[in-house]
Design brief:
The chain is an alpha+beta fold and 148 residues long. It is built from 5 helices and 2 strands, in the order ααααββα. The protein starts with a helix and ends with a helix.
Length: 148
């Protein structure tokens, strides 16, 4: 389905942009919100396309409501569209290396962003998992109900 493939491509683009903007809070925040909306659009497109087919509504409700990842990102999408911009929290790791012989000092900063409610996995990794889940979802829909 062309619309699904276009949105999938858009979502992959935003995931790549997340990697590219990880050191820039504002750009990362904008990309993560775009990623969330784009990815959730795929689920919405499929739901609209297939809801008229026998058995789809029950299957869809069962699949999506029983999936913590899909439920979490649906909630995040609703927040970013209707209430507020999603602003992940960050762990900032600052490394300072001092070289005694040369007197030279080097430093580097690394950011790890987290969604509220998922403190055990960073936002980039969780977003990758979500995209993988969306791809599994698409495959299961096409396998069970055909590609319309």
């Amino acid at each position: 389905m062309k619309e699904v493939q276009e949105k999938l491509s858009e979502t992959e683009y935003h995931l790549l942009r997340l990697k590219d903007t990880i050191d820039d809070k504002n750009n990362f925040k904008h990309e993560i919100n775009a990623f969330i909306v784009s990815a959730q659009s795929i689920v919405s497109i499929i739901n609209r396309r297939y809801k008229h087919l026998d058995g789809f509504k029950g299957w869809f409700d069962n699949y999506t409501k029983g999936n913590d990842l899909l439920t979490f990102f649906r909630t995040q999408r609703n927040l970013t569209v209707h209430e507020k911009t999603i602003t992940p929290t960050a762990d900032v790791i600052l490394r300072i290396n001092e070289y005694l012989l040369s007197g030279k000092t080097e430093s580097s900063t690394e950011y790890r962003w987290y969604y509220d409610g998922f403190d055990d996995i960073d936002a980039l990794s969780l977003s990758k998992k979500y995209l993988e889940e969306i791809e599994r979802f698409i495959t299961k829909v096409y396998s069970k109900f055909g590609e319309t």
